């Protein structure tokens, strides 16, 4: 039965039942599409082909019974985001994950398991315990105290699927992925158009949710924020750069530190305040300047903002290129998996070859 796959693909496309029926040339009604989704009826071969074409998927995809589901979904969203928008994003994440896992299966690769740090879940009964959690994760993964150049790549190496999608009012989500007959995997979705320093902090924040276990009334969001700051800007390194106590820090110095750690100027100011390098009053003065210069509102364009493409997950694309090069799939299938045209695929392949 195709009900679940059809509903996911339609939700991912953002189409209503009526819009999908219209996109198929009205060869069936919206009510008929609803019956297919509820598994009350099966489409004919002609209708199945039309459904697949309208949704830009293959007939095989709709007929495949391997289903995914997301559990424990944590959204990073604006206030007022509707439940429909959340459901659409979940469907888009599942839709892309299915393609990701399909490529791994084609290449006969065992999907990388989530490499949970030995110390996780780390108990956090005080917000400062998040500092210890970040140090423990770095130790468990052998990262030392060096700045992390490509965080999305690091997380994918550790078995977390990182997906980059075109989003509006949501910065992303994190969830467990349940696949029939398999242990729960992990996925983080980030907003494709965000500046890379914002993506990096969101990725570290979601990692925090995966490895900490707050208790005693500790606010989990604040603890994950503290974890993200400590993970990206280790205390010892930051103090070595700026000193243990300062009465103020210049914008120019913060810009230089931004180049080193790959985080926003505002995240650096918060981190300096959390570590007691500057006091609350000095931090407030900095944020007043940030607001005056427009850095606290969209598009959050600080000096030397890192372009969005600098912190993009690339593993899925590399696997598609590999499957194509090894003759496992053809160009049309590779383009379908990547969600691009064959022409765009050729352009990317030429770019890689160059």
From TrEMBL:
CDD domains registered for this protein in UniProt: HTH_XRE (cd00093)
GO molecular function, a single term: DNA binding
UniProt-listed Gene3D superfamilies: 1.10.10.2910, lambda repressor-like DNA-binding domains
Entries under SUPFAM superfamilies matching the protein: lambda repressor-like DNA-binding domains
Residue ranges crossing the lipid bilayer per the database entry: none
Sequence ranges assigned to domain HTH cro/C1-type in this UniProt record: 6-62
Family: Belongs to the short-chain fatty acyl-CoA assimilation regulator (ScfR) family.
Record's protein name: ImmA/IrrE family metallo-endopeptidase
Organism: Sphingobium psychrophilum
